[in-house]
Amino acid sequence: MSKTINLIKANASNPKVWIVAGITVAGILLLADTTRRRRRKAIIIQRQDFGAFLERFDLIPFPQPPTPPAKLPLQGLTFAIKDIFDVKGYVTGFGNPDWRRTHEPSDKMALVLTALLQNGAKCVGKTVMDELAFGITGENKHYGTPINPKVQSNIPGGSSSGSAVAVAAEFVDFALGTDTIGCIRLPASFCGILGFRPSHQAVSTIGLIPNSQSLDTIGWFARDPSVLRRVGHVLLKVKAVEPKRERRLVFADDLFQLSKVTKQKTVYVVSKAIEKLSGYQPPQHINFSQYVASNVPSLKAFGQNSSNLQYGISALKALSSVMVSLQSYEFKTNHEEWVKNVKPRLGPEISHRVLAAINTKYENVKVLYKVGTEMRAALQSLLKDDGILVIPTIVDPPPKLNSMKDYSTEFHDRACAVLSIASMSGGCQACVPLGNDAGCPVSVSFVSCHGADKFLLDAVLDMYASLQDQVSNAFKSALLSDVNGNMDASQW
């Protein structure tokens, strides 16, 4: 460009020079415009997958005998996996570029991935996650935040954010994630899809980077309850046929009172749905926090006797405190050396939690594990082999993007109060979408005791169509009532 200017100065009176200069400048501007367009196109292409994928590849199902006896259970289905599972020949990034930089490509395949490929499913790539699986918002400083397809101005939830978004945006039929303190259930709720956290140790974690072994589970997302169940049957290795049992729903009334969604849109819908189904006993109701306080005596060591219900009910607030302490203690045991040696670049919220975990001296660790043992026994005593606890998956709507600085502590505390139930008991939990409220997805969760995974998956499949019918009926009723002026204008 400077040569062109000098040429013009030296030959200002020559019109041919002006023509050449004009063509040159026009060419530069055209090149700049073309470059801008290419960059814009690259951004558009990058966001066409809603930012869900970290890297794309195809892992085709394993070869089958020439004449298989029957169709494979996952044949024709596609799936994605969180960047926490080992894939042979690929670096497992754990959601952080410094982890990726300091680790070699894996020489093995995660057992869950092998099981899915053996049963006919095709893997199409790895998904974005919260760094080190230590967040619940789904926001990632380095790789970007996957876009919530149901409400793009709000967070998708984490840490399995990319996997949830990939399913919600219909890029895959199902996706794998992990759930430690809510990392399947929360994004499933915020993205309006089905999510399943299995019983602790029910699915092998070989080939998974651990965050906290006592809480880590491998879960999955789907849009279709039959797909959710089929994936479960493969990963859980359950018997295809079991005697059908009657189901008993137990509503945790005190937890629904904490929710910002009215009970009409959750408890009422579930109650009406099972009225039309056979094999269900009349529903029961319970103050679940009081039940936990009475049946998990080790919680008294954490001094949560206050009647202040600002962030949740005291016993569950204590339970969530134990859960977070247990996660932090085990994370420190697993990764303290790497964090101190590498000093990784982390997002502000993740950095705060990681440094707190690494720098804390943990006392009375045995009590943390004792609470878990008592909580598992308490849930087993309440639900036995036929009970399903009904709770809100999360008590708040998904926060706006980049807003967590304003109320991250309150949001985290309220979320963990309900998420701690399955995490600390080791039980299984299914998150089921129930339409929208005030423009955001709403869900309800069903919890069963440890080992009742097939029972719960069967129940979700059995209830799903009736639940969606009731959601539709409630939407119509809301419209009619709003016209008559007898109900608020919130819609499903």
TrEMBL record:
InterPro entries: Amidase_dom, AS_sf. It comes from the Eukaryota. Keywords: Membrane, Transmembrane, Transmembrane helix. This is Amidase domain-containing protein. PANTHER family: AMIDASE 1 (PTHR46310), OUTER ENVELOPE PROTEIN 64, MITOCHONDRIAL (PTHR46310:SF4). The chain crosses the membrane at residues 15-32. Residues 70-457 form the Amidase domain. Pfam families: Amidase.
